[in-house]
């Protein structure tokens, strides 16, 4: 497909394949979590602002056991 060949050029990817993920940033987070972890898995998250708080909330909603450490 021409689009993928062009994306390889844009990202200077001589090997492998560029993957297009049509989603918001939050969709990317969710895909990363659900494709690498399973409900009941333990995760450690340093919470130091809104971004990291949202990560912890998303992890909890997916059934992960979250150990959140508040940090400045």
Identify the notable features of this structure and list them briefly:
72 residues, alpha+beta, two-stranded parallel sheet, 2 strands, 46% helix
Structural class: alpha+beta
Proportion of residues in extended strands: 15-25%
Describe the strand arrangement of the main beta sheet, using strand numbers: 1-2
What does the radius of gyration come to? Answer: 16 Å
Instruction: Name the shape in a single word.
Output: elongated
How large is the count of helical segments? Answer: 3
Give the quaternary arrangement of the chains. single chain
First-last Cα distance: 47 Å
Total count of domains: 1
Major β-sheet profile? 2 strands, parallel
Number of strands: 2
**Low-pLDDT segments, ≥5 res:** none
**What is the residue-mean pLDDT, rounded to a whole number?**
90
Taken in chain order, the helices and strands follow as: HHEHE
Helix fraction, binned, reads 40-55%
Q: What would your notes on this structure say?
A:
This protein is α+β, with helices and mostly antiparallel strands and 72 residues long. The chain has one domain (2-70). It is built from three helices and two strands, in the order H-H-E-H-E. It has helices at residues 2-10, 25-36, 50-61, and strands spanning 42-47, 65-70. It has a two-stranded parallel ribbon. Helix 3 (50-61) links the parallel strand 1 and strand 2 (65-70). The longest helix is centred in the middle third of the chain and has 12 residues, at 25-36. The termini are far apart. The model has no long low-confidence stretch (mean pLDDT 90).
């Amino acid at each position: 497909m021409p689009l993928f060949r062009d994306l390889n050029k844009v990202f200077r990817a001589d090997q492998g394949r560029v993957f297009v993920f049509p989603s918001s940033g939050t969709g990317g987070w969710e895909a990363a979590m659900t494709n690498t972890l399973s409900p009941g898995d333990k995760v450690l998250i340093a919470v130091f602002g809104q971004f990291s708080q949202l990560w912890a909330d998303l992890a909890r909603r997916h059934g992960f056991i979250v150990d959140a450490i508040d940090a400045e």
